[in-house]
Every structure is written in structure tokens, then in C-alpha cells.
Amino acid sequence: MLSCRHMIGQLLNRQYQRHASSITAKILEHRYVELTQTDGLQLKYPSIWLRDNCQCPECFHGATRARQSYWERSPLDAEANRVNYDEKRQQLVVNWQDDHNSVYDLEWLKQRDFSVEARQRYLDEVYKPPAQLWSKSQFGDVTREFAYKDVIEKDAVLGAWLEALAVQGFALLRGAPDDVQVARHLAERIGYIKLTTYGDVFEVKSKPNAGNYAYLMKPLPMHTDMPYYEYKAGINILHTLVQSDSPGGANTMTDGFFVADKLRREHPEYYELLSSVPVNWFDIGHDGDAGKPFHNLWRAPVICLDVDGQFARINHNTMKRDSRFTVPLDKVGAWYEAYDKFLQLVYDEAVQFKTRQGDVFVFNNLRMLHGRTAYEDSPKNQRHLVGAYVDWDIIYSKLRTLKFPNPKD
Ligand SMILES: [Zn+2]
């Protein structure tokens, strides 16, 4: 299989090297270095950035990919004296005013092109695959299924599964063995299981004296897990060991990013409130009779964005929303109005399906609102799920190592 890096390389080569025309380098406004090819290629780099990223052994420690220059002050006064493009070696050579010399491979420079297209390509291909938002009616089109055995045994299938979790936000694995270790094996196949106040692997079944609402047979309303954590669980791996024979016990799910986007388009004033007013999320109790006590608190809006303005996280859990609402008095009524509209959209867009024994339902807990319909256990048929969490840092890292097994730089 061709790696993405290889394909990007080919794309770049087609774009930049259609003709083996010569490249000239020049200094612009004392602040930029520009490479121009006769067929129109233009690459422009700030001098300060070039000097900061000098690749010589004095400035850069190749074995650890670590910059070892400018530890105390940045290279503010860097100015190029002379620049030259070495056609034979395909390298830009810069002689600086303090007589330091730097050499950059053309390929290395192209991968760090500052153009809008190149930056976006890097974010989409290497940083995070863009999310595909979906409505209730698109559920069938976005559902991805994989054989449990293939995910465990084949790296290409593992990669496709993780890509589906990043893009569509959920996936179903079929044919898992009747083994309480399945959720743990999947978490460890990705990397590391996440430890929370509910332990590492957790069991979802109706329990007497339940410490958590999920451990009751009542319907479980739409929610995300652990909004009360700053480092909220990234994905939820839910293995169905025993499914309820009763008509209930079905999964419900809504794409929270789709709902947030719909709210932004159709009710911008509500969107503004839900993405700015902080809510107190809490979890106080202990896990089981002998479990350690916990007192979790995290303050964040329902809709959270990342530095690029993309949806990063949805917080919603009616059961875990604190009655302490530490916002100014006049914000409260308006916030409830916005929240009511959000919930209406969440339920309007909810899909319903019922997993079978041997299914593993895995979803992005930062994005997917999920719940369960009510069910009836009988002495012979007790619904039993085993779950585990993994953080997105671990998942993205695994995905990148699968896509780019031998990164040169
Ligand atoms: Zn250097």
C-alpha cells in the first residue's frame, strides 16, 4: 500500500517538478527568502523562520529531531547576507550576516510551504483527518463495520478503523469472542487504556445500589461521558457480552458536531451562548460499595472549539450538570432557552440500533451523544456490556505511525 506521505510526495512532485526548470533564490525586503522556478513555482519563507530552523549539526540535533539553538532568545535579528540555490544538490544555501551558513533540502522546504493549500493539506493529512458531519438520514452511509479479528491481526484494518473513528465518529466491530478482555485488548491494540475514577475496564449491567445512573435498567438519556473531566475520555469501547432479549436495551446516538453546526447556521444567538457560557459538570460519589470516593468538577461550555475554530468537544450530561451554575444572573434564562433548542435538535437527529452479542460499538466520546432505551433483565438474560476508554492523543499517534511508518523528518 502506498503511504500517504508517498502520495503527498507524488502530488508535490507533479505540482512542483513538472519541468526540470531552474530555480533562483533571492532575498525580499530583508525579511524573506523566495525561491522561483521558471514554470511559476514560488516558495517564500520568512528569514527568521529559516534561521530558527537551520538544520546544521550545531543548530539541530538530528537523532532526536530537536532544535538546539535559540534556547534563551529567538533569532530576531537574523538577516540573510546571500542566498543561492544549488541546482545539483537541490538545496537552498543561506549565508547569514553573522557568517553562519545554512543548507535546506528543496523537499524539506516544500513540506513546510507556507501557502494556504499546503498548510491545509498538512493539517488534513497529518494532523487530524477532517470530521465528516452526518445527520440522522445519513446514518446508513456513514456506518463502518470491521471484523474484530482483522482489527487485532491486520495493521491496515486497524488504521481504517481508527480513521473511521476520527472521520465518521463511530464504528462497529463484529465477531468479538465471548471474553471480558475484548475491550482491554482493543484499547491495548491502539496503545494504552485510560484509567478513570471508574477503573480501567468497566462493566455496564444493572447493579443493586448502583453508583452511576448507567448501571440501572431505566432509559439512559443522550449524553457524553465524563464532561466533568478536563482530560475527558476520547473514545468509548463498548463490547456486548450479553444483549437483552427484551425489546429495549437499544443504543441511541447523535452526531453532536452536526447538531452544533446546525445550531450555528440556524440559531446563531443560541450557538453563541452554548459555545461561551461555562457550565459546571460534576461527579461526586464512589464506584461501588468499596470504591474510592471521588469529587470531579470541570467548568466548560456545551460546545467547545479548538484553536482552528473546529468543533473539539461536546459536553452534555443532564445527570452530571451541577445545580451550581456560576455565571451572572442575567445569563441563566437565555442559556436555558439555547440549551432547550440544542436538546431538541439532539433528539431529532438521534439514530437507534441494537448491538448483538459479539459486537463492539466504539465511538468518539468528545463528539457523539449517546444513550440507551430502557430494558428488562430476567434471571436467565442479564444485559452485560464491558467498556474501556482510550484518549485521542494515543489514537492519533497510532494512526500517524500506521500512515507514516518511516518519517524522515
Ligand atoms: Zn546552523
Structure report:
The protein is α+β, with helices and mostly antiparallel strands and 409 residues long. The chain has two domains: 4-125, NE0471 N-terminal domain-like (2-Layer Sandwich), CATH 3.30.2020; 136-403, Clavaminate synthase-like (Double-stranded beta-helix, 4-Layer Sandwich). The chain is built from twelve helices and 22 strands. It has helices spanning 4-16, 47-52, 106-111, 116-127, 139-142, 148-153, 155-167, 182-190, 256-266, 268-274, 329-348, 392-403, and strands at residues 23-28, 32-37, 42-46, 60-61, 66-67, 80-86, 91-96, 101-105, 145-147, 170-174, 202-204, 220-223, 235-242, 251-255, 279-286, 293-300, 303-305, 311-314, 351-353, 360-364, 368-372, 384-390. Helix 9 (256-266) crosses helix 11 (329-348). The longest helix has 20 residues, at 329-348. The model has no long low-confidence stretch (mean pLDDT 92). Zinc ion (ZN) is lined by residues 54, 56, 58-59, 100, 102.
Write the layout of secondary structure elements.
Elements: H1 4-16, E1 23-28, E2 32-37, E3 42-46, H2 47-52, E4 60-61, E5 66-67, E6 80-86, E7 91-96, E8 101-105, H3 106-111, H4 116-127, H5 139-142, E9 145-147, H6 148-153, H7 155-167, E10 170-174, H8 182-190, E11 202-204, E12 220-223, E13 235-242, E14 251-255, H9 256-266, H10 268-274, E15 279-286, E16 293-300, E17 303-305, E18 311-314, H11 329-348, E19 351-353, E20 360-364, E21 368-372, E22 384-390, H12 392-403
Parallel strand pairs: 9-10
Antiparallel strand pairs: 1-2, 2-3, 4-5, 6-7, 7-8, 10-20, 11-22, 12-21, 13-20, 13-22, 14-19, 14-21, 15-16, 17-18
Helix pairs in contact: 7-12, 9-10, 9-11, 10-11
The chain binds zinc ion.
Zinc ion binds at residues 54, 56, 58-59, 100, 102.
